[in-house]
Amino acid sequence: MRSRLLVLCACCLVFSLYAQSPATSAQNFPLRVTTRLVQVDVVVRDKKGQPITDLKQEDFEVTDQGKPQKISVFAIESNQKAIGRAGPLPPNTFSNLPSRQGASQNLTVILFDTLNTGVIDQVNAKREVLRFLQQIQPQDRVAIYGLGAQLRVVHDFTGSAEALARAIGYYKARLSPEHVSSLPPVEDNTAGLSGPELAIIQAMDAFLNASNQLVGNYYIERRMAITLQALGAISSHIAALPGRKGLVWISGGFPFTYGNEHFQVNQANVGVKNFADDLKRTAQAITNANVAIYPVDARAFMSASTVNPSSSAETGGRPARRPSLADTQVADDVLASHSTMQDLADKTGGRASWGTGDVEGAIRRTIDDSRLTYALGYYPSDIKLDGKFRTIKVSVKRPGVQLRYRHGYYALPDEPMDEAHRQDAINTAARSPLDATGVGFVAKFSTPGESASMRQIDIDVDTSSLALEQKQDTWSGGLDVVFAQLDGVGNVVGSIGRLVPIRLNAAERERLLSDGLVLNAPLEIQPKCAQVRIIIRDAKSGAIGTVTAPLK
């Protein structure tokens, strides 16, 4: 029986989980740039595209900002073997620990994006995904999420093709108001007009276009915010899982640009608010969670005239008609999306696909890349946490090899640990449809006595998730522990929590490392509560873990 070093008593502070306005918060993960350790997963193939499996640490060379780095961590990871499951969990016991989930070392997420995609393209993409699912192998671990007005779990990680196909079969194509309302402005209707009549029509069109642009910008901003929150939630969900993760992002529009010295809304989305800080934090979450993005343009067939409306196949590239304002914006959006897709793939180590409609092939390439990867870790010799993009280059001392890896990272400092960021992080964790894994734990529910409205909750925290600060012979830290009670549709009907301080001497620290850390708390269940989400945030690092337990 593990020692219960700390007890979370019933006298808890009440948090208002929804007091803050929605925002994207960065999460901190076990492999963080700010710990000076940078991990790069490398896919190595020969001239025929087959994986090379016999490389050693001394075969690799890594530079950071052009300076050679000493490789301190080296491992070969394969999705052919799964993490050993520690056995089935007892009844009424829930966990976010990878060892309790039996996850593969390399995972694939399919993000089916209806928020930024037209209905017809959604239908085509869904057909391609269903075709791909017929080919997955038992060792493949695939999850399918849907991005609409909010992120939805279609099916979490599994190797069952039947279960995934059945789940996505229920997922219907749907019209996105945010996508429709941010489409191009009205057509140019001034052809053949002149004099006063032309001036009147031009003035009216200018007024309508300005009004439409304001409405369009509002919905573009909503698409940006929802998309960033979804990417952050996915990164938080898979951050603690080992190995390389591939994210196949199937979308009809990518509303931001991921570049070396900038990470901002793309060139077609002028006039929207500045998302630079949110975008950088999302980029940090993606890279720290070891995610390679494989963006796929769901717009299956795009001719040259779509990208350049001043020419067409029928006229051999000669001007066919004067492009309208709507044509120009569509073309700008397509070009910006493709630039974004390529940047996302290059910076994270994935591949971009557009113009072919081969969604099935794109997903297959993602899983093939995860068959075997080399994990390299190094401590940058001269890192400055100035928020700038640092370029990584990996080479192998063997001719004729093809490498795929992320090309860099943003050297961002830790998030501030003030009250506003603390509340925002807890709020974001409470709203997320996915459990976070930054702090691992196992939670066991029991019913004390005969009271149907009371639960006793024992929380066994993974001590490797904790960040303790040492001062002489004392180690200190803390955990925010919050219980959010949710109804059947995910609305919070009650919340309670407190900061649990940790202060240990040398003997207590040794006991913590050997026996672990268990928190105990009684919880009174609200009448409308259908599930309890436990949120644990490390007060020193800001890392967050969540576990959602349905009530029976």
3D structure, described in words:
It is a single chain. With 552 residues, the chain is an alpha+beta fold. A hairpin with a 4-residue loop joins strand 10 (256-258) and strand 11 (263-265). The two termini are 27 Å apart. Mean pLDDT is 76; it is low at 1-35, 260-270 and 301-328. 28% of the residues lie in helices and 28% in strands. It has helices at residues 98-101, 119-133, 161-169, 177-181, 195-238, 276-288, 304-307, 325-348, 359-369, 419-431, 506-515; strands at 38-45, 60-64, 67-69, 71-78, 93-95, 107-113, 142-147, 151-158, 245-251, 256-258, 263-265, 291-297, 372-378, 389-396, 402-404, 408-410, 441-446, 454-461, 469-471, 474-486, 492-504, 517-524, 531-538, 544-550. Helix 5 runs parallel beside helix 6. Strands 8-7-6-9-12 form a five-stranded mixed beta sheet, with helices on both faces. Strands 19, 20, 21, 23 and 24 form a five-stranded antiparallel beta sheet that branches. It has a four-stranded antiparallel beta sheet with strand order 4-13-1-15, with no helix packed on it.
Give structural attributes:
5-stranded mixed beta sheet, single chain, alpha+beta, 552 residues, disordered N terminus, 24 strands, 11 helices, globular
List the helices and strands and how they pair.
Blueprint: E1 38-45, E2 60-64, E3 67-69, E4 71-78, E5 93-95, H1 98-101, E6 107-113, H2 119-133, E7 142-147, E8 151-158, H3 161-169, H4 177-181, H5 195-238, E9 245-251, E10 256-258, E11 263-265, H6 276-288, E12 291-297, H7 304-307, H8 325-348, H9 359-369, E13 372-378, E14 389-396, E15 402-404, E16 408-410, H10 419-431, E17 441-446, E18 454-461, E19 469-471, E20 474-486, E21 492-504, H11 506-515, E22 517-524, E23 531-538, E24 544-550
Parallel strand pairs: 6-7, 6-9, 9-12
Antiparallel strand pairs: 1-13, 1-15, 2-3, 2-14, 4-13, 5-17, 7-8, 10-11, 14-16, 17-18, 18-22, 19-20, 20-21, 20-23, 23-24
